[in-house]
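[agent] plan:
  1. take the single chain provided in the ticket
  2. run structure prediction with default settings
  3. attach structure tokens to the ticket
  4. add a short note for the reviewer (M.T.)
[agent] executing step 1
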Amino acid sequence: MSTPEQEIEYRQFRFSPPSGATEIFLVRHGESAPARGDDPFDLVDGQADPDLAPDGRDHAQRVAARLAGERIDAIYVTTLRRTVQTAAPLAEKLGLTPVVEPDLREIHLGDWENGLFRKYTTDGHPIVDRLWAEQRWDVIPGAESDEAFGARLRGALTRIAAAHPDQRVAVFTHGGVIGEVFAQASRAVERFAFLGADNGSISHLVLHGDTWIVRRFNDTAHLATPLG
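[agent] step 2 finished; step 3 output follows
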């Protein structure tokens, strides 16, 4: 005959955000237009501001389909239009007006802005090798320092979390931003460990005070799912 103690079941722990925490879905913008030497991008505060490419617009629709049922309370975008364009389908579905957060813009690449980073990476410029060896953006002439970049991102996300306790927020941002944020959240030894988030990918953090909890990185399941 079993005792009351033997009848008690202890199930595995299921994560739930702490009271007052904010869930943040970091979405990398859809693929942007290719850089062409004879047709430079428009600039916003010295940073390249390309439109989405046709594939990027498809990414935006797929992100909207994926997040429409996630109880999103607010949407944030950066000053660069590729994030605004990626967020637009979800904003329309949810009836939300995106908030611009300038400090979540991409790392400023100094002398390598306006498509030159793409060109020099393809060409095998020696500074690219140094960038990966040292894992610092500011080996590029005139680029924003890694310390300034990291501080402005942390400040922006801290402000967003403070404004949205117990809520879910979609932040449409950039690959370098996601890489730095996850390096901070995971206390990664290698600063570039999380570079390479795919266009249209979704990464998920929980912010609770000074604690940043990683839930997932570079989720792209929706990019392979037929739109219905």
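[agent] step 4 note for reviewer: The longest strand covers residues 211-219.
[agent] ticket updated
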